[in-house]
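INFO batch 0412 | record 1 of 1 | parsing
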Amino acid sequence: MKYTSTRNNKAFIDFESVSLKGLAADGGLYLPKDWNTENFKFSKKEVDFESIAFAIINNFVGDIISNTDLREIIRKSYTGFSSKKITPLKQLEDNHWLLELFHGPTLAFKDIALQLLGNLFNFFLEKNNNQINIIGATSGDTGSAALEAVKNNQNINIFILHPVNRVSDFQRRQMTTVKSSNVFNIGIKGTFDDCQYIVKKLFNDIDTKEKKFASINSINWTRIMAQITYYIYAVMQINLCESKKISFSVPTGNFGDAYAGYLAKSKLNASIEKIIIATNENDILDRFFKSGKYCKSNVKSTNTPSMDIQVASNFERLLYDIMNEDSKQVLKIMKNFESKNSLSIKKNTNKKILDSFKSFSINQKRTLEVIRNVYEKYNIILDPHTAVGFAASLEYLEKNEEHTVVSLATAHPAKFSNAVLKAIGKKPILPKKYKNIFELEERYEVLDNNYKLVKDFILKNIL
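INFO prediction complete | emitting tokens
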């Protein structure tokens, strides 16, 4: 399997290089050169997560990892999940399901991709007797999932940037209480977009291009690949008895999770009607899908901090499809966006792709209202991000009663206990693993939003 950049589709690299590099040297994002969609045939008799994950991932890996090794990597990646189904489904109504993605070790959907990526890193590094330095930005959940995946690994140092006072206390402590010499947490006095900008600049800096930097953000193709799995798994489970076209409601800020669903529909031919984009008041994606205009504005702090993002990295991958895989056009558009903070496409440009999406923006008041209503009706506590997606599902179903919708539950409510308390008057119970998290000592650096300061700190501590 060969991969190419969204900004130069004449150069190709293999899956191992894509996994270890993350961002392309030209600043673009990697995608498969070919999709091999004819390989995706699943038996309804074998609906288990690991089998489906193997079939999907094996197609994108090619022959660079043996089937035996890949099956073991997948098995190891999901042994720490609290549910045997890994991503279990709950049926709430005849046409509304909840897909629980928070049963991993750090209680968020990011574990599904990052446990796999951590094991892939280790496989490649041990095979080649090599070392890397992981650089990542987090709006809350990616950081802790990445640290859990690679902590105590002698072949890896990991540097995670998070925006100071813009993640929940629980999210911050999940990162800053990790006791491991290979872990470096950096609080940036800015927004997630500032953190993400610094990470991307590090990868393209002439002083750091020869350093062994790797990415764990969703700019890394492996993250997207792993997230396709639960869309296929959910579709197959729901369609065991009858064939339905299913829409998925995805609370999203950086667009990676939603893009994975789009690929399940458009490239792997899953029986999916729509990917419902559910944003908070940082609504750049909602505005784009409604108008064709993608315009950056100031980041607002909300009760769904993991979605407080204005520049969605994975949007470039969708743009590549919209532009009919014209990498020169994508390069031109993205360079223009970097200088002007806005871009627009014609409404009729590849309308088929835009027809795959429906979008909604949910405000903070409605988010709390949905948490309260769901608790009263189903005795289920949603985290606020899941509530944003749930609210979007309800709006979609009002006009599409005959459709079936799956709302993605992206995090355990304990990660955002203050929002839950405000909604229902009590905090969710902390899982046993994290019972004492608020008593543990924290360790992290706080730096100004200054590229040179961050770069110097990282270069002093790399392997």
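INFO post-check: The mean pLDDT is 94.
INFO record closed
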